[in-house]
Amino acid sequence: MENENELIARILAGDQESFAELVETYQRSVYNLTYRMLGDAREAEDAAQEAFLRAYQHLSRYDPGRSFKTWLLSIASNYCIDRLRKRRLTWLSIEEPLPPHPALSSNEVEPEEAVAIHERYDAIQAMLAELAPEYRAAVVFRYWYDMSYAEIAETLDTTESAIKSRLFRARQMMAENLRTERHSSLIVAIEGA
Amino acid sequence: MAHDNYLSLISLSLDGLLTKDEQFSLEMHLQSCSACMYAWEQMSLVDRMFAMPIEVAPPPDFKSRVMEQVSGYEQRRNLYPWMTLIMTTILLVAMMSIILPILFVTLGLYRMLFDIPVIGMLLTRLIEIHAQIMAFIGTVGVSASHWISFLTTDPMALAVIVTSLVMLSIWIGMHEAFKLQTTSEFSAQSA
Ligand SMILES: [Zn+2]
């Protein structure tokens, strides 16, 4: 995107305010990613802000030949993976309760529909929470960002075959978890959707 | 092909990444293998669950908070060279103030200072004042130590001190008692 590269050049030249335009354009993408990865609205906001700040600090390292969105999402996902690893060390065996729902982006939904959406939302978040950070990131990029294996590999700085096996293992694990008692109510929610 | 390979094909099939031949061989296997068929059903269920992603919206003040952090970072970055300069200066001065006196004394450089007209005179005067102060502190210190040893070793002096302390405490006690009496008289009158 030529326009975007011009914008970045302006920011690098010292026009700090132009960065607001990039935040405006990508805040939704970054926040959705950090939210899916961390499962908590507050933490997700913190992480999304940190990702933007890091992008600003390291903007000179951005290669204009690449997609800015991919670069930004790569910063955000790496940050979330690090954070989840640290969290694992401290909370090792504690079962996490489901966090409260953040504002859903579709505003015009009927109340019954909203309940169904929230049930499905709980089911999805519970499934994601049981995956290792690297697997979780691959699933989120595949479904929410509709990325190809190559794009996911580039964003997570790994190979396509690694992504292929991560997605396979993640799906297998989620399918197995579906069978456990804990998620039997979730299946109802999914089948209902 | 082993079951594991077919399971991996299921995942690829969900992403639409199988060739016609691979897809066909997977379907043939699923018809004959109930374990893989079950896995296919479960993984398809997961896939359907994720197929319509629900989006969440960032808080309304998200952008302004990011920009606050950015300007905070810029301010810190602008201050950084100045802070480095100030810290380096402080460090250098601290080092000089330790190293210079040592050099002066060990190398005998201080003797050269006395040859400089005004500074030499001032320095001589300073040394004299310093010596006088030290001498005064010395005499005061010596007489104080004499007095302390005299008071603690001579029985007569000790007796005088103890007696005067006793008399002082008696006086304080009487003084307080008298004050107490007048206030109680006063309160009795007013009641
Ligand atoms: Zn099989």
Short description:
The complex is a heterodimer of chains A (193) and B (191). Chain A is an all-alpha fold and 193 residues long.
Give an overview in words:
The complex is a heterodimer of chains A (193) and B (191). Chain A is mostly helical and 193 residues long. Chain A has two domains: 88 residues, RNA polymerase sigma factor, region 2, helix turn helix motif (Rna Polymerase Sigma Factor, Chain: A, Orthogonal Bundle); 105 residues, Arc Repressor Mutant, subunit A. Chain A has nine helices and no strands. In chain A, helix 2 packs across helix 3, helix 6 crosses helix 8 and helix 7 crosses helix 8. Chain A is globular and about 55 Å long. Chain B is mainly α and 191 residues long. The mean pLDDT of chain B is 87. Chain B is elongated and about 120 Å long. Chain B folds into three domains: 48 residues, no CATH class; 30 residues; 80 residues, no CATH class. Chain B starts with a helix and ends with a helix. Chain B contains seven helices and no strands. At the A-B interface, helix 2, helix 3, helix 5, helix 6 and helix 8 of A face helix 1, helix 3 and helix 4 of B. Bound molecules: zinc ion. Zinc ion (ZN) binds next to helix 1 and helix 3 of chain B.
**Most strands sheet of chain A:** none
Task: Please state the average pLDDT score of chain B.
Answer: 87
Total domain count of chain A: 2
Biggest sheet of chain B, in brief? none
In quaternary terms, these chains amount to: heterodimer
Uncertain segments of chain A are: none
